[in-house]
Amino acid sequence: MENRLPTSDQNFVESLIPQRSPFVMVNEIAEYSESHLISGFEIKEDNIFVQNGIFQASGMIEHQAQSVALHTGYKYYLLGKDAPTGYIGAIKSFEAEALPKVGDHLKSEVTILNEVMGVTLVNIITKLNDVEIANSQMKTVVK
Fold it and tell me: Per-residue b/e over 56-67, b at no fewer than 16 CB within 10 Å?
Protein backbone atom coordinates (compact mmCIF):
# COMPACT_ATOMS: atom_id res chain seq x y z
CA MET A 1 0.00 0.00 0.00
CA GLU A 2 1.49 3.31 -1.06
CA ASN A 3 0.21 6.55 0.34
CA ARG A 4 1.58 10.03 -0.18
CA LEU A 5 1.08 12.93 2.18
CA PRO A 6 -1.10 14.73 2.81
CA THR A 7 -3.75 12.02 3.01
CA SER A 8 -7.19 11.71 4.49
CA ASP A 9 -7.64 8.09 3.36
CA GLN A 10 -9.50 6.82 6.44
CA ASN A 11 -8.55 3.16 5.90
CA PHE A 12 -4.87 4.06 5.60
CA VAL A 13 -4.92 6.38 8.63
CA GLU A 14 -6.71 3.75 10.75
CA SER A 15 -4.16 1.11 9.68
CA LEU A 16 -1.47 3.16 11.44
CA ILE A 17 -3.09 3.32 14.90
CA PRO A 18 -4.34 0.61 17.28
CA GLN A 19 -7.73 2.28 17.92
CA ARG A 20 -10.84 1.20 16.02
CA SER A 21 -14.21 2.79 15.42
CA PRO A 22 -15.95 4.35 17.28
CA PHE A 23 -12.79 5.35 19.14
CA VAL A 24 -10.80 6.85 16.23
CA MET A 25 -10.00 10.55 16.77
CA VAL A 26 -7.72 11.20 13.76
CA ASN A 27 -8.53 11.06 10.06
CA GLU A 28 -5.71 12.89 8.28
CA ILE A 29 -1.93 13.15 8.10
CA ALA A 30 -0.85 16.45 6.58
CA GLU A 31 2.90 16.38 7.31
CA TYR A 32 5.47 13.98 8.75
CA SER A 33 9.14 14.05 9.72
CA GLU A 34 11.17 12.12 12.32
CA SER A 35 10.40 14.78 14.94
CA HIS A 36 7.12 16.25 13.72
CA LEU A 37 3.61 15.39 12.50
CA ILE A 38 0.48 17.35 11.66
CA SER A 39 -2.76 15.43 11.97
CA GLY A 40 -6.34 16.38 11.24
CA PHE A 41 -9.71 15.42 12.64
CA GLU A 42 -13.23 16.40 11.63
CA ILE A 43 -15.72 16.24 14.50
CA LYS A 44 -18.92 14.42 13.66
CA GLU A 45 -22.26 14.40 15.49
CA ASP A 46 -22.01 10.70 16.41
CA ASN A 47 -18.57 11.03 18.05
CA ILE A 48 -18.55 9.45 21.52
CA PHE A 49 -16.92 12.57 23.01
CA VAL A 50 -19.58 14.99 21.68
CA GLN A 51 -22.11 16.29 24.19
CA ASN A 52 -24.71 18.85 23.15
CA GLY A 53 -22.80 19.52 19.94
CA ILE A 54 -19.49 20.23 21.74
CA PHE A 55 -16.37 18.05 21.55
CA GLN A 56 -15.29 17.55 25.17
CA ALA A 57 -11.80 18.08 26.63
CA SER A 58 -11.40 14.32 27.13
CA GLY A 59 -11.87 13.92 23.37
CA MET A 60 -9.23 16.59 22.74
CA ILE A 61 -6.75 14.67 24.90
CA GLU A 62 -7.56 11.44 23.06
CA HIS A 63 -7.19 13.20 19.69
CA GLN A 64 -3.78 14.50 20.75
CA ALA A 65 -2.66 11.07 22.01
CA GLN A 66 -3.82 9.42 18.78
CA SER A 67 -1.87 12.04 16.83
CA VAL A 68 1.25 10.82 18.65
CA ALA A 69 0.26 7.21 17.82
CA LEU A 70 -0.14 8.28 14.20
CA HIS A 71 3.44 9.59 14.20
CA THR A 72 4.73 6.26 15.51
CA GLY A 73 2.51 4.28 13.15
CA TYR A 74 3.64 6.24 10.09
CA LYS A 75 7.29 5.86 11.10
CA TYR A 76 6.84 2.08 11.29
CA TYR A 77 4.90 2.09 7.99
CA LEU A 78 7.87 3.75 6.29
CA LEU A 79 10.13 1.05 7.77
CA GLY A 80 7.79 -1.68 6.47
CA LYS A 81 6.94 -2.86 9.98
CA ASP A 82 3.74 -3.22 12.00
CA ALA A 83 3.27 -0.39 14.45
CA PRO A 84 3.57 -1.25 18.13
CA THR A 85 0.83 -0.53 20.65
CA GLY A 86 1.46 2.56 22.75
CA TYR A 87 0.00 4.09 25.87
CA ILE A 88 -0.17 7.48 27.53
CA GLY A 89 2.44 7.20 30.27
CA ALA A 90 1.78 10.63 31.78
CA ILE A 91 0.13 13.91 30.91
CA LYS A 92 2.48 16.60 32.15
CA SER A 93 0.17 19.44 31.14
CA PHE A 94 -3.04 20.06 29.21
CA GLU A 95 -4.77 23.39 28.57
CA ALA A 96 -7.86 24.00 26.47
CA GLU A 97 -8.73 27.59 25.59
CA ALA A 98 -11.89 26.57 23.72
CA LEU A 99 -13.83 23.43 22.86
CA PRO A 100 -14.70 22.80 19.21
CA LYS A 101 -18.13 21.84 17.97
CA VAL A 102 -19.60 19.37 15.51
CA GLY A 103 -18.37 20.12 11.98
CA ASP A 104 -15.12 21.74 13.12
CA HIS A 105 -11.83 20.48 11.71
CA LEU A 106 -8.92 20.22 14.15
CA LYS A 107 -5.26 20.36 13.17
CA SER A 108 -2.74 19.10 15.71
CA GLU A 109 1.00 19.53 15.53
CA VAL A 110 3.07 16.91 17.34
CA THR A 111 6.67 17.75 18.17
CA ILE A 112 8.89 14.98 19.50
CA LEU A 113 11.01 16.51 22.26
CA ASN A 114 12.84 13.38 23.42
CA GLU A 115 12.70 9.66 22.72
CA VAL A 116 14.54 7.14 24.89
CA MET A 117 13.98 3.38 25.21
CA GLY A 118 10.36 3.42 24.05
CA VAL A 119 9.37 6.48 26.10
CA THR A 120 8.60 9.58 24.05
CA LEU A 121 8.11 13.11 25.41
CA VAL A 122 5.93 15.15 23.07
CA ASN A 123 4.46 18.61 22.80
CA ILE A 124 1.11 18.90 21.01
CA ILE A 125 -0.66 22.05 19.82
CA THR A 126 -4.22 21.80 18.50
CA LYS A 127 -5.63 24.55 16.30
CA LEU A 128 -9.04 25.40 14.93
CA ASN A 129 -9.05 27.79 11.95
CA ASP A 130 -5.33 28.48 12.57
CA VAL A 131 -6.02 29.57 16.17
CA GLU A 132 -4.52 27.55 19.01
CA ILE A 133 -7.30 26.12 21.18
CA ALA A 134 -5.39 23.45 23.17
CA ASN A 135 -1.90 22.33 24.02
CA SER A 136 -0.37 19.55 26.04
CA GLN A 137 2.83 17.82 26.91
CA MET A 138 2.70 14.08 27.50
CA LYS A 139 4.85 11.01 27.69
CA THR A 140 3.87 8.00 25.64
CA VAL A 141 5.20 4.50 26.08
CA VAL A 142 5.55 1.88 23.37
CA LYS A 143 4.76 -1.69 24.41
Answer: beebbbbbbbbb
Residues 2, 18: Cα–Cα separation, whole Å? 19
DSSP letter at 56 equals -
Cis upstream peptide for 100 (omega within 30°): no
pLDDT per residue as tens digits for the range 76-98: 999 999 888 888 999 999 999 99
**For 128-132, 133-137, 138-142, which range has the lowest pLDDT when averaged over its residues?**
138-142
In the DSSP assignment, the letter for residue 43 is -
DSSP H/E element including 41: strand 36-42
Distance CA 8, CA 57 (A): 23
Planar angle of CA 86, 91, 97, nearest 5 degrees: 120
Rounded-to-integer distance, Cα 44 and Cα 57, Å: 15
